[in-house]
Write a structure and sequence with these properties.
heterodimer; A: mainly beta; B: mainly beta; five-stranded antiparallel β-sheet; globular
Chain lengths: 117, 113
């Protein structure tokens, strides 16, 4: 149980275009979803936290208008990288949690490798 | 603010034990976690420990928690080549009413014959 599906796994896009990444909880209702960014050989940097039906909470230094997060249902959250540039190339990972799940950890998607050319 | 620190690299011989260490700063953390990341993949939860525990063992994995020193360790017994990966220590931090995971930089474990 507790599977999180993230798509696409890899995407290459042209500079200036937008890319949408989906994160779905397949067998549970995710009250909270997290979006992380990981640079090569570095740790995960939390970008934002989203709760179903409310606006995402962004971490300091993360541009809200550039990284649009939508958590419209209990099983789906999306991250849209708008007007992507080469410096946005990175590995993006989502994570989902249900209320009271701290003792079971957070389930992660398999990640999306974004390359902006 | 919250901070989690780990050594960056560990090399062990196949069959030996591996010990990965981590220190954290948030004394109010209720849960502490160990995650494993293989190349190009997401994170896999290995184990967790509740803050009122000193030790937890799960098959080849043993977690030790020294709450006084805010030190967490993960011991992998009989390390195999399939254990080669990056291991992240993480603590829960409550901020703005939300629980969020704070990760260490990750320890790259290399297992050699």
């Amino acid at each position: 149980g507790a599977v999180v599906s993230q798509h696409p796994s890899r995407v290459i896009c042209k500079s200036g275009t937008s890319v949408k990444i989906e994160c779905r909880s397949l067998d549970f209702q995710a009250t909270t979803m997290f979006w992380y960014r990981q640079f090569p050989k570095q740790s995960l940097m939390l970008m934002a936290t989203s709760n179903e039906g409310s606006k995402a909470t962004y971490e300091q230094g993360v541009e809200k208008d550039k990284f649009l997060i939508n958590h419209a249902s209990l099983t789906l959250s999306t991250l849209t990288v708008t007007s992507a540039h080469p410096e946005d190339s990175s590995f993006y990972i989502c994570s989902a949690s249900a209320r009271g799940w701290q003792n079971y950890g957070y389930t992660f998607g398999s990640g999306t490798r974004l390359t902006v050319v | 603010g919250e901070d989690v620190e780990q050594s960056l690299f560990l090399s062990v011989r196949e069959g030996d034990s591996s010990v990965i260490n981590c220190t954290y700063t948030d004394s109010s953390s209720t849960y502490l976690y160990w995650y494993k990341q293989e190349p190009g993949a997401g994170l896999q939860l290995l184990t967790y420990i509740f803050s009122n525990m000193d030790m937890k063992q799960d098959q080849r994995l043993t977690v030790l928690l020294n709450k006084k020193d805010k030190h967490l360790s993960l011991r992998i017994a009989d390390t195999q080549t399939g254990d080669s990966a990056i291991y992240f220590c993480a603590e829960i931090s409550i901020s703005g009413g939300y629980n969020k995971l704070i990760f260490g930089a990750g320890t790259r474990l290399a297992v050699h014959p």
